[in-house]
Amino acid sequence: MTKRDTPAAPADKGGDAAVGDPEARAREVCLRLLTLAPRTRAQLADALRRRGIPDEAADAVLSRYEDAGLIDDAAFARAWVESRHYSRGLAGRALSAELKQRGVAADEIRAAIDEQLGPDAEVGAARRLVAGKLAATRGLPPEQRTRRLAGLLARKGYPAGLAFRVIREALETEGEVAFPEDEDLIDGDDLGTE
């Protein structure tokens, strides 16, 4: 029999060879998931665990993929921060929580947020969010407008001090007095920090 006449290997029939080889199954699962979207090492490890792949085989494959650059949690974190901040207006705190949920290490999260976002970027994003929602709150009492705008910013992860400062600026620009009876509540020095 020549090489051309040999029957196809079982791997050519839908991955049947991978059934007996846990590393081959792990490679197949990882490549399929990475083809769909970037993933963190933790996300891939969870996917392999759910499919019953032994931890030793999963670790071996994941380590090789990290060495080859197919898995890069730091790059994932940088891309996530950039994308979610600019598309959804999320603040560093919300981005940090999302990345932590996806298994990114704390030092990589902090580095990505520090690299991609500065205080000016968060303030600018908060101002854009408030400006976008401000028209929808016209005609409401100032306290109600403030609550709605503060709720919007809180859901996006902005600290209270920053949120109220931006809301006050926006309402004052419109000529409306924000927080008429609780003026000194907002002026506290501790509101701008977390």
Order of helices and strands: HHHHHHHHHH
The helix content is 55-70%
Average pLDDT confidence is: 83
Unreliably modeled segments: 1-17, 180-194
User: Main sheet?
Assistant: none
- Strand fraction equals under 5%
Global outline:
elongated
The figure for the number of domains is 3
Termini Cα gap: 74 Å
**Secondary structure tally: strands:** 0
What's the alpha carbon Rg, rounded to whole Å? 25 Å
SS class: mainly alpha
Number of helical segments?
Answer: 10
Q: What does the model show?
A:
This protein is mostly helical. It folds into 3 domains: 52 residues; 44 residues; 74 residues. The protein is built from 10 helices and no strands. The radius of gyration is 25 Å and the shape is elongated.
Question: Which labels suit this protein?
Answer:
disordered N terminus, 3 domains
Topology readout:
Layout: H1 22-36, H2 41-50, H3 55-68, H4 73-88, H5 92-101, H6 106-116, H7 119-134, H8 142-155, H9 160-173, H10 183-186
Helix pairs in contact: 1-3, 2-3, 4-5, 4-6, 5-6, 7-8, 7-9, 8-9
